[in-house]
C-alpha cells in the first residue's frame, strides 16, 4: 500500500441529523447519542486532549488549515468546536505553513502542497487531511515514513459528490444556453437572443464514474440524456447503484476515444494522478464531435491548456465550462476568457452549506475515532 489512509467504514452507520440544523451544543449531544453506533468509546475527545500537545500545552489538540482559500471550512470548524476548548483551530497563509507545521497535530491541506520537506518538520503531526477529496498535493509516502496518517472525506457520504454534480449540471446548462451571451443581451436590452441548446437528446460522456459521476448521471437522466461512462472496474461490488438503469454504454480508459467520438458533452470528474494529468489532450479533443462541449469539475491539469485553447479558437470545441483551473487562483487576465463560450467558476463545486457542515462533522469524528495515540 502506498501510504497510510484512514478507514471511513464507520460512515456507513446510521446518519446523523442534517448538520445545518445543529448548534454546537446540539451537535455535542448528537455526538454523544451516536457514540455507540460510531464505535466511539466515551471520553474520546478527552483522550485526544490528553494524548497530544507539546510540553506546556499538553491539553490542546491543534488543527492547522493551510491557506486563506475555502474560508467556510475554517469558519464552520471553529463554530462547531467552540464548545471544545481543548481543540484549537488556526489558519495561516501558504508561505507560513513550513514555519508552524511542527506545532500542530492535524493539518488540513486545501490546495497547499505538503511535500517531504514539510512533513519532515511535522514532528507532532498525527493526520494530514483533505477537506473533501483529492490528495494529489500530499506526499503520502513521506507521511507513511513518518507514521502520519493521510485521509480524505468520502464524497459519497459528505454531500460533496452531490454538490459537485449539481455544479456540473450548472456548467453544462451555462455552456449550452450561452450564459455570457445572455448577459450581453441583458446589458444591451435585447430580447429572445441568444438561441441555446438543450440537454434533452444529447449524449453525455462522464469521464470517471466514481461517486461524483454517479450523482451526475442520476441528475442527467431525467433531462433525457444518453449516458456513456468510463470506469476502471465495473464489477457489481464496486457500485452502489443500478448501473444498467443509469448508464447506456459502459467503457474503460482504454476505449475513451471511441466514446468521446459519440458524445455531445464530455464531463470530466477524474482524480488527478500521474496517469490522468493532460488526459484531455489534442488527440482526445480531435476525436470529439465538432461543436461538442467540455465540462471539468475534477482538476485543472486534467485538461491540456494549449489543446483546449487551440480547439476553442478553431471552433471545433463548442464550449468549455470549468470549476477548476490550470493554476489556482485563476488568472482573470487569462486569454482563454476572451471566448464567449467559456464559463469559469472559482473552485466551488463542493462548496455548499450542506457539504461543508457535513464535512466539518466528519473531521471531528475522525479526531474522535483515532484518538491520536
Automatic annotation (TrEMBL):
Ranges for domain D-isomer specific 2-hydroxyacid dehydrogenase NAD-binding: 170-349
Gene Ontology terms, MF aspect: oxidoreductase activity
Taxonomic classification: Eukaryota, Viridiplantae, Streptophyta, Embryophyta, Tracheophyta
Please name the source species: Urochloa decumbens
Which Gene3D superfamilies does this UniProt record tie to the protein? NAD(P)-binding Rossmann-like Domain (3.40.50.720)
- Name used for this protein in its record: D-isomer specific 2-hydroxyacid dehydrogenase NAD-binding domain-containing protein
Keyword annotations for this protein, in alphabetical order, are: Oxidoreductase
* PROSITE patterns per the UniProt record, alphabetical: D_2_HYDROXYACID_DH_3
What highest taxon heads this organism's lineage? Eukaryota
Amino acid at each position: 500500500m502506498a501510504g497510510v489512509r484512514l478507514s471511513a467504514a464507520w460512515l456507513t452507520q446510521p446518519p446523523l441529523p442534517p448538520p445545518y440544523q445543529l448548534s454546537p451544543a446540539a451537535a455535542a449531544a448528537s455526538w454523544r447519542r451516536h457514540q455507540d453506533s460510531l464505535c466511539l468509546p466515551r471520553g474520546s475527545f478527552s483522550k485526544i486532549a490528553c494524548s497530544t500537545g507539546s510540553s506546556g500545552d499538553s491539553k490542546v489538540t491543534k488543527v492547522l488549515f493551510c491557506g486563506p482559500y475555502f474560508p467556510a471550512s475554517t469558519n464552520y470548524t471553529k463554530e462547531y468546536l467552540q464548545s471544545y476548548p481543548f481543540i484549537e483551530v488556526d489558519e495561516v497563509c501558504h508561505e507560513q505553513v513550513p514555519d508552524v507545521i511542527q506545532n500542530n497535530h492535524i493539518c488540513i491541506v486545501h490546495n497547499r502542497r505538503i511535500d517531504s520537506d514539510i512533513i519532515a518538520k511535522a514532528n507532532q503531526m498525527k493526520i494530514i487531511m483533505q477537506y473533501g477529496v483529492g490528495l494529489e498535493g500530499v506526499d503520502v509516502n513521506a507521511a507513511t515514513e513518518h507514521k502520519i496518517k493521510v485521509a480524505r472525506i468520502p464524497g459519497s457520504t459528505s454531500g460533496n459528490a452531490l454538490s459537485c454534480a449539481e455544479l456540473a449540471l450548472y456548467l453544462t446548462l451555462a455552456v449550452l444556453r450561452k450564459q455570457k451571451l445572455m448577459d450581453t443581451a441583458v446589458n444591451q436590452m435585447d430580447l429572445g437572443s441568444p438561441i441555446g441548446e438543450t440537454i434533452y437528446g444529447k449524449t453525455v460522456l462522464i469521464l470517471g464514474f466514481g461517486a461524483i459521476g454517479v450523482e451526475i448521471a442520476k441528475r442527467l437522466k431525467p433531462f433525457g440524456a444518453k449516458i456513456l461512462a468510463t470506469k476502471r472496474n465495473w464489477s457489481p461490488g464496486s457500485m452502489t447503484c443500478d448501473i444498467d438503469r443509469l448508464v447506456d454504454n459502459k467503457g474503460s480508459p482504454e476505449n475513451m476515444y471511441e466514446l468521446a467520438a459519440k458524445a455531445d458533452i464530455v464531463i470530466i470528474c477524474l482524480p488527478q494522478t500521474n496517469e490522468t494529468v493532460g488526459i484531455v489532450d489534442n488527440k482526445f479533443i480531435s476525436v470529439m464531435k465538432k461543436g461538442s462541449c467540455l465540462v471539468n469539475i475534477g482538476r485543472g491539469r486534467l485538461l491540456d491548456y494549449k489543446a483546449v485553447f487551440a480547439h476553442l479558437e478553431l471552433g471545433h470545441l463548442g464550449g468549455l465550462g470549468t470549476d477548476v483551473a490550470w493554476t489556482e487562483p485563476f488568472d482573470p487576465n487569462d486569454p482563454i476568457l476572451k471566448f464567449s463560450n467559456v464559463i469559469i467558476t472559482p473552485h466551488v463545486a463542493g462548496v455548499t452549506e450542506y457539504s461543508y457542515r457535513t464535512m466539518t462533522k466528519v473531521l471531528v469524528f475522525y479526531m474522535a475515532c483515532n484518538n491520536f495515540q
